[in-house]
Amino acid sequence: MISAFATTWHQFHQACILLFGIKCDSVESVINFTFENNISCEWIPLHDWESLADIHILENLPSGSDFSGDLYILAESSYKHFPYKVASDDMVCFASQHLSYSGECLFNGDLLIFNPVTKEVWLFHHEGLYSNFRLR
Q: Whole-model pTM?
């Protein structure tokens, strides 16, 4: 059950503060953070993403998308339900169950995935763009 991946908004915000130094509430807040801190984000198009299943997108992300450790996830469904904390080993399970649980695709709309320990960040824009970077 995907609710097992739920975390509280407080825990999510604490993880954001640990990584970014800000309480992020959206992908836009992280994009603004990258601009304000001169962090280079290369946006890569995910071609034909609207016709693909979440699991297919996840398994075919560009190189550099190797997930590890505990991941915090802010999806469009988070605003109706809650943010998520998912062990990287459970990411395939999470992505495959997301649609049936929330009623919408994981990669529908903006999506933020980050690991506050490794400082790895993945951004997915609602127009089919993807970026991945590591904070120093």
A: 0.88
Dihedral angle, C-alpha 83, 100, 131, 49, nearest 10 °: -160
The closest of 67, 90, 72 to 15, measured between CA atoms, is 72
Distance (Å, rounded) from C-alpha 127 to C-alpha 45? 9
pLDDT tens digits, 37-96: 998 888 999 888 889 999 988 888 765 567 888 999 999 988 888 899 999 889 889 999
Contact 70, 87 (CB under 8 A): yes
In contact, 132 and 64? CB cutoff 8 Å = yes
Domain positions in the chain are 4-134
CA-CA-CA-CA torsion sign (118, 18, 133, 27): positive
- Cα–Cα distance, 110 to 1 (Å, whole number): 23
